From TrEMBL, chain A:
Signal peptide: none annotated. Residues 11-241 form the ABC transporter domain. Keywords: ATP-binding, Nucleotide-binding, Transport. Belongs to the ABC transporter superfamily. The keyword Protein biosynthesis does not apply. It holds the Pfam family ABC_tran. SUPFAM superfamilies: P-loop containing nucleoside triphosphate hydrolases. It comes from Phytoactinopolyspora alkaliphila. This is ABC transporter ATP-binding protein. GO terms for molecular function: ATP binding; ATP hydrolysis activity.
UniProtKB/TrEMBL annotation, chain B:
Residues 12-37 form the Putative zinc-finger domain. InterPro entries: Anti_sigma_zinc_sf, Znf_put. The lineage of its organism: Bacteria, Bacillati, Actinomycetota, Actinomycetes, Jiangellales. The chain crosses the membrane at residues 92-114, 120-140, 161-185, 191-209, 214-231, 237-261. This is Zf-HC2 domain-containing protein. Keywords: Membrane, Transcription, Transcription regulation, Transmembrane, Transmembrane helix.
Length: 256, 277
């Protein structure tokens, strides 16, 4: 059993800049997040994946600071401590076809330094939470795309992370699985800081307590899904109020 | 959330001095509020009897859970097996390829003894390359589909790299020694030390270039050096790089490279990409 601990700010990002050669992927981004399910919404190329990779501690910024769980990531020990409390599902994720679901999730439990005596229970609990327990001993190559995605989610949550990063997590899930996934998000978001990067407006409507809209490497909107819907200009098209709000804010950002 | 359970209510709840109806509303709030759960846990941690009760109930629940499927106990040995064998799919290809290369080199070496008419001592030339390729195949980020997640874990850096390099070195040494004995090549000590040094150099350069590129650079460097040394040597002599006299140089190189790895160990905290993503 993990004892609940009071954590200060989960994610604090200040004036983040990332450049790839001449191209600027993040252009002075600020972001503060605590527990809850947060949406990171934006068109393709907006810089979502770049930000997720920084928060996952995989890459380093050109300039600016990232602080996670009030830790300084430049210090090796603090970085290790943060990584034990992280879960990450990248946008593109390869699987080991010969592994069973259980071996695959176990592998990441060890890599995340889950205490040895808790590994078997943690692995099965994670697999159970994504609804794959009946397929736990099947090889990954026998699973469908949606099931693989769920195995990927299971590895992300196996250490009961305080910060959970999902990059385009609903890709490959059918509508029913999306609904289940959002329920899982809400359950995890009670105790943890969950960040969901997506270019699909409907992902944030249903599951997120707030939305950050990024465009061109900058944050151009932060608020609840309702507030995004309220920002809609009547002249723009779109299937739902929130989609119209999204388009309105994006257009304003591009003109300004 | 604007309302939270007041501190004295939390205390009353922990000590069991609270009406049932109030307890229910406290519990309803706790199920959705991390802050109050944390305060409750802090308060409860001052009550040893309560903590002991929670622990024993938790153990009872855990002990009662049925074993499902092929659950393996969490032991240090299990950890080692999982972490070492879970490398990229390329590892089997590597093992097969290295066996084939060494068998071929030993075979050619046996047919045309190197001290006869200046033929290349193939086994000695090829053997030190095998562990370098093995390290790249078992760790190189471009080959591991899951490296992006691995790079975000505390156990995925230098520790994992060293575990796999030691395994690769041990496996390739066994293969190479066996091939050497079979072909009558002579003392394996010089090229075992060369292998060790080249692997350590791969790790040292890996802290700058990424393991994949470092393996290519060190492997290429070795191929050039050993070819030059062979052309340079008298027709009936072993190339200097593979002589017993040269062995101490390899040892020193290995130690220096190991020092570099130790000093630069933080560089393995982040992936150094060998491919564009
Ligand atoms: N490794 C990289 N090298 C060069 N350019 C990159 C790299 N990663 C991302 N970019 C560029 O940075 C911008 C933001 O990309 P990305 O973060 O993937 O956006 P999103 O996930 O929102 O679609 C894009 O213009 C993309 O081409
Ligand atoms: Mg992306
Ligand atoms: Zn509360």
């Amino acid at each position: 059993m993990s004892t609940p601990t009071v954590i200060g700010t989960h994610v604090e990002v200040r004036d983040l800049v990332v450049r790839f050669g001449k191209r600027t992927a993040l252009d002075g981004l600020d972001l503060t997040l605590d527990t809850g399910v947060h949406g990171l919404l934006g068109p393709n190329g907006a810089g979502k994946t770049t930000l997720m990779r920084l928060l996952a501690t995989v890459a380093k910024p050109t300039s600016g600071t990232v602080s996670l769980l009030d830790h300084d990531l430049r210090d090796h020990r603090q970085l290790r401590r943060v990584r034990r409390r992280l879960g990450y599902l990248p946008q593109h994720f390869g699987y080991y076809p010969r592994f069973t679901v259980r071996e695959f999730v176990e592998y990441f439990a060890w890599l995340k330094e889950v205490p040895a005596d808790r590994v078997p229970t943690a692995v099965d609990r994670a697999i159970e939470r994504v609804g794959l327990l009946d397929r736990a001993d099947d090889k990954l190559k026998k699973l469908s795309g949606g099931m693989l995605r769920r195995a990927g989610i299971a590895q992300a949550i196996v250490n009961d992370p305080d910060i959970l990063l999902f990059d385009e997590p609903t890709a490959g899930l059918d509508p029913e699985q999306r609904v289940e996934f959002r329920e899982l998000l809400r359950a995890i978001g009670v105790d943890a800081c969950v960040l969901v990067a997506t270019h699909l407006v409907e992902d944030v409507t249903a599951a997120c307590t707030d939305v950050t809209l990024v465009n061109g490497g900058r944050s151009v909107f932060r608020g609840t899904p309702e507030e995004l819907a309220a920002a809609a200009d009547d002249s723009v098209g779109g299937d739902s109020p929130i989609e119209r709000g999204y388009t309105t804010v994006l257009r304003a950002a591009r003109q300004g | 959330m604007t309302w939270h359970v007041p501190a004295d209510t939390v205390r009353a709840y922990v000590h069991g001095r609270i009406a049932d109806a109030d307890a229910w509303s406290v519990e309803a709030h706790l199920s959705s509020c991390e802050q109050c759960r944390a305060e409750l846990a802090a308060e409860a941690s001052h009550v040893p009897a309560l903590m002991a009760d929670v622990d024993s109930r938790w153990s009872a629940v855990a002990a009662d859970l049925p074993a499902q499927g092929r659950v393996r106990r969490g032991t240090v040995w299990r950890e080692l097996v999982v972490l070492v064998t879970a490398g990229p799919a390329a590892r089997w290809a590597w093992l097969t390829a290295s066996l084939a290369v060494l068998a071929l080199a030993a075979g050619v070496g046996a047919i045309t003894p190197m001290t006869g008419g200046g033929e290349l001592p193939l086994l000695g030339m090829v053997a030190p390359l095998v562990p370098i390729l093995g390290v790249a195949a078992s760790y190189g980020s471009g080959l591991d589909d899951a490296h992006e997640v691995i790079a975000s874990t505390p156990g995925g850096g230098l520790r994992l790299l060293l575990m796999r390099s030691v395994t690769v070195l041990a496996a390739s040494s066994v293969i190479a020694v066996a091939a050497g004995l079979f072909s009558g090549y002579g003392s394996p000590v010089p090229w075992l030390l060369a292998s060790l040094a080249l692997v350590m150099l791969t790790l040292a350069f890996g802290s700058l270039l990424g393991v994949g590129r470092a393996a290519a650079a060190v492997g290429g460097g070795w191929a050039v050096a050993v070819t030059v040394a062979t052309l340079d040597a008298p027709a009936d002599a072993i190339p200097s790089l593979l002589t017993v006299e040269f062995a101490p140089v390899w040892l020193v190189l290995a130690v220096v490279a190991a020092l570099v790895v130790t000093v630069r160990r933080d560089a393995f905290d982040h992936i150094i990409l060998t491919t564009r993503h």
